[in-house]
């Protein structure tokens, strides 16, 4: 049986100052490590504000190579504290080709690889199709010093297929770095339902696959209403669900927090023995799912 391991989720606010964000992230990584975390995940695009609220070609200048300058700085901390880091960055792959990418650094500072966000949204204040090319690396797993992990990024979290494939590759925990919040004009009427749906879909991935789901969101308001950008109120609520979907730790919706949670692979084993969804899958009958829509004459 695999050993227990401890994960840390850093829920924080961000400003437009990337150096400030990185410095604060490093402080919080140190704090999480001091609390016992061995695998630490930041929220989506933690290096700055969530810039996809507008379509502005100048913002492509925020992108960088992955691996690159930010992963080099974080690798030093990973090695110093002997922690695994899961960090979401705006990747410049080539002129005109950019990705929303998660880098995984092992506990010796080595670069294990990256995951590129597969599902790219295009909604009001989430204009990601303007910036990001869909991922082309599939759904990899990363064998770290402490556990085998997988990654899904924000919009990916609504699609059961990606989480299923990630789990089938052996992930003991799936990290979901996220930047999601309320539109000010929707919060009163729809806010509670939106948050509940978001929490429910990710708990369902834990249940259906018998894995830990570790969801880390940013918090705080980002926007410039005086300049026509109504902004988003990021709703925090980072959480960890166990392999039966029970929430074992959850952050607030309005403040920075660090969650540190011990994960026991034996719980996955026990859950899958008693709720054998993977055993009973009808893999011979699922070909239709490869179609966009099933037309019926």
Mind explaining what this structure looks like?
By secondary structure, this protein is α/β, with parallel strands linked by helices. It has a single domain, classed as Carbon-nitrogen hydrolase (Nitrilase/N-carbamoyl-D-aminoacid amidohydrolase, 4-Layer Sandwich). It has five helices and 15 strands. Helix 1 packs parallel to helix 2 and helix 3 runs parallel beside helix 4. It is globular and about 55 Å long.
Give the class-level CATH name: Alpha Beta
Largest sheet: 6 strands, mixed
Structural class, please? alpha/beta
**What is the rounded distance between the termini?**
51 Å
Total E-strand runs: 15
**SSE string, helices as H and strands as E:** EHEHEEEEEHEEHEEEEEEH
| Major sheet strand order | 5-4-3-2-1-15
Write the layout of secondary structure elements.
Elements: E1 5-11, H1 18-34, E2 39-42, H2 69-81, E3 84-94, E4 97-105, E5 111-116, E6 141-143, E7 148-151, H3 160-168, E8 173-178, E9 181-183, H4 187-209, E10 212-217, E11 219-224, E12 229-235, E13 239-241, E14 247-250, E15 257-263, H5 265-274
Parallel strand pairs: 1-2, 2-3, 7-8, 8-10
Antiparallel strand pairs: 1-15, 3-4, 4-5, 6-7, 9-12, 10-13, 11-12, 13-14
Helix pairs in contact: 1-2, 3-4
Keywords, separated by commas or semicolons:
297 residues, Nitrilase/N-carbamoyl-D-aminoacid amidohydrolase, globular
């Amino acid at each position: 049986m695999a050993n227990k391991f401890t994960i840390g989720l850093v829920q924080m606010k961000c400003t437009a100052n990337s150096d400030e964000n990185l410095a604060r992230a490093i402080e919080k990584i140190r704090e999480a490590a001091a609390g016992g975390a061995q695998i630490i995940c930041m929220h989506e695009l933690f290096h700055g504000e969530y810039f996809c609220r507008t379509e502005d070609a100048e913002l492509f200048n925020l992108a960088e190579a992955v691996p690159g300058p930010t992963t080099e700085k974080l690798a030093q901390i990973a090695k110093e504290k002997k922690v695994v880091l899961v960090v979401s960055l705006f990747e410049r792959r080539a002129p005109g080709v950019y990705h929303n990418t998660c880098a995984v650094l092992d506990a010796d500072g080595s670069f294990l690889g990256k995951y590129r966000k597969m599902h790219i949204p295009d909604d009001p204040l989430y204009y990601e199709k303007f910036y990001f090319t869909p991922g082309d690396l599939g759904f990899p797993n990363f064998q770290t010093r402490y556990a085998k992990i997988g990654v899904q990024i924000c919009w990916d979290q609504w699609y059961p297929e990606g989480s299923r494939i990630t789990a089938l590759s052996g992930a003991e925990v799936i990290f979901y770095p996220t930047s999601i919040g309320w539109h000010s004009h929707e919060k009163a009427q729809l806010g509670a339902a939106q948050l509940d749906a978001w929490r429910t879909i990710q708990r369902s991935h834990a249940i259906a696959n018998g894995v830990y789901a570790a969801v880390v969101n940013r918090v705080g308001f980002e926007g410039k209403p005086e300049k026509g950008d109504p902004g988003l109120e990021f709703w925090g609520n980072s959480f960890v669900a166990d392999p039966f979907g029970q929430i074992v730790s959850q952050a607030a919706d309005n403040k920075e927090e660090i969650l540190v949670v011990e994960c026991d692979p034996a719980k996955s084993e026990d859950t899958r023995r008693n709720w054998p969804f993977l055993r009973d899958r009808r893999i011979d009958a699922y070909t239709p799912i490869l179609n966009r829509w099933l037309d019926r004459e």
